[in-house]
Structure prediction request, 918 residues.
Amino acid sequence: MNMIMQIPVPKDISLPLPLPGGVLMGILIFSFLLHILFINLMLGSTILTFWFQLKGLKDSDYDVLAREIAATITVNKSMGVVLGVAPLLSINVLYTIYFYSANAMTGYAWISIVPWVALAFLLLYLHKYTWDRFAGNRSFHIAILSLPMLSFLVIPFIFLTNINLMLFPERWNEVHGFLSALALPNVFPRYFHFLAASLALTGLFLFIYFGRKTYTPAHAFNRLQQADLQQMMLNLTLGATGSQLIFGPLLFLTLPSKGVSWSLFFVIVGGVVFALAALVLMWRMQVSGNMAINRRFMLIVASLTVTVGFMGTGRHIYRENALRTHKELMAARTKTHQEAAKKAHENLPLPKETQELLSTINPGQELFQSHCAVCHAAATRLVGPPMTEASAIYAANPEALKKWIKAPGRKRPDYPQMTGFPQLTDQQLTDLSAYVLGNKWN
Amino acid sequence: MDFPIFHLDFMGNRMLVAVIAILHVVINHGLAVGFIPLVTWLEYKGFVINERRHADGHAWDELARKLMFIGFIITTTVGALTGVGIWFAASLANPASIGSLVRVFYFAWFTEWIVFMLEVVFIMIYFLTWKKSVTSAHSKLRHIRFGLALSIFSWLTMAIIVAILGFMMDPGNWLSKHTLLQGFANPIYLPQLIFRTPVAMMIAGTFILMATLYILKKDSPIKREAVKTVSAWIMRWTPIAAVGAFIYYWQIPRMMIGNLPVAIATQQFQDWYNSLLWVGVFAIAVGFIVSGSGFFFPTRLPRPLMVIPVVVSVLFLGTFERIREFIRKPYVIGNYMYANGLLADDYPLYQQNGLLSESTWSGICTITPENELQAGENVFAISCTRCHTTHGINSIVWNFERMYGAGQPLNPDAMKAYIKQMHNVRTYMPPFPGNDAELDALVAYIIFEQKEPTTLEGAQLRGPSLFGNLDRKVTN
Prediction:
């Protein structure tokens, strides 16, 4: 029977969940959406900064705009990271076996996230705080930004690969390292969906950011007005959300069928309905040219929030569906194992029998076998010197031998130092030394 | 056993965790807990001086702001990422233990996350509002008060996290009494806090001393006074750190006598315990020398040499962290799970039925002469690799050669006798979890590795299955 053909079924962690599963799933969905919101803003703003700085090479107003956007990244990226801990904790506790297995199989890529993101953040700061210093060398300044931007574009693949890989235990045996896990179906459609969402949300965020009544740019624009900035951002959200009409179905249609269900379908459709409503509202706003943050605009925000909620829930339903059968197999295996482990305890010799068994042996001999014989043989050198030597040295002095066993020093330069045995009681030491000195070692 | 085995065959998995964790602790202690109070103090000095000599007051404020800039940059990048990184690394190195701990400590970690999040938010507010705070005396004072609140808050963050650590360290009743209060009642809790607080202040002082020497120009009018102030700060905390370190040093074996009578007197522990004393004395001495010369000769402190106290501080903290980790052994979770990630309760089953047939990823049920090496490698991967490598750090071959003589061919019978009883002799080692056939296979594999060294690849390269890594046949 070839191992490769079998679906691996590990045993689960044999401790209860700290909260009912439903509550944990609620925490997971909510905290994940919060985390990904800031990650979206971090990625989207970095791309926009880069784009507008490129445009700024010809028109300095765009350089100012890039700088305004860059100023928001500092807070968003920090929030993105710290808010990631709660969903990480929750997915760890809910899907321990699946998530950690995926982590291990993509181990190098997974752990590289830590130094890589830290480095990307440092470069982002370097870029932010050298804006004036590199005023005369903009291309170099933009080149610095390209590094964190490319990092932010690549690192999501590592997360997506893990989140995807954990859903398919039946394919784990085909995986040999990160790249082969990346090639599993559905990683790329997920990625484009995420990328478009990042741009859409960033547009929405910056629309509000630039549209605030109290907004005053830290550096003056020549030509661009507040309304121009808002118009640009609304365009971005409109375009990026519209592109989800392609990326969304692409993602849904390439989902491996094992997790697709009618409930998933209806949740997704629910999300799409609200997204379409938001698209229509944004379109009308764009046509009207009124950029006020009014009730109509809040309706757009609300619709998109509902969409995000639906999609986050759908994502979770798919995960639950995809893992349902395997979870049942795993629960059964865990139960069998626990029963077998219990039975194995019953097979152990009872303490009473052990004692009877022991009483037939000299207690000193028993101690010698369990504590000394691994390093000391009768007449030959093993780890330590032979017992013939030791018994000769201490023949007249059992107390010195006891003292030595308890806390040995180092006498022989060509031997490793002996381990001490302070855990032995005085009676045990007496028995042991009596045996060592009384036994005939040749 | 149940997870695909991530393995680093040169540096070892524990080293990965250690590097990330120590970096995080150093940043947390040296650039947050101890750092922010000193920066706030310097900012306050600037505020007071400002009333008499405006230019000097401004220079003090600028110094404090630039220092906080460094703290802000590092804590929100490397600091934050290594904090999350401890999770990443620990769940790669020992998923079974983290997976179990997270079920019991979910709320504790959730609490930790909330304080951590608030700390990051407060650090951002403190730094990002600095430039606006200079506009009036009123807003400056408010900013200083915020710095003071942040100082107290980051100390509280540490106090909570130490409780969580202490609770996890508490062997024995961790399953039955899982309230966080147990962590505060842990015998090592107060000694840890008494140790960590002044050491954090001291380390931050050395960081700030070095940074100040680089920030202030040679002719800066406040240089002399600033170096003196920072040196005095270090000098005040150094004796308290010495006392704290000694209490911690004194308490560790007493705590272990109560909880882990087995681990105390192993040679390894003694070596580390002694090194603790030497590193402690050395660090305290360096602290006094640096702060003394800074205080009495503030203008003659050579900048490049300031790296020394920084390195010594890191060493000082690292040694204490290492010993704190070591006293868990042979368990990773007291009396519940051994360091190899196997449950103590599952041992009889594995020893009776065999480890491999119970594992998810081995695929070997019966050991035959053909698959013996393969089986031995699987046993090694499952039961040894959380701490040992084949030929890298804490190499299994090196450990045996050290016992039986370097370069000598290993003797299988002696090794088998040793492995069966090693938990009695080297009490930090878990008992061998497999059956006799698996022991034979493991020994054959180690001897093979001595003769023909190969690299054991982890699941991150070879995939999750333990099947077919060692396809070389033994030719004799």
Remarks:
- Chain B is about 70% helix and 0% strand.
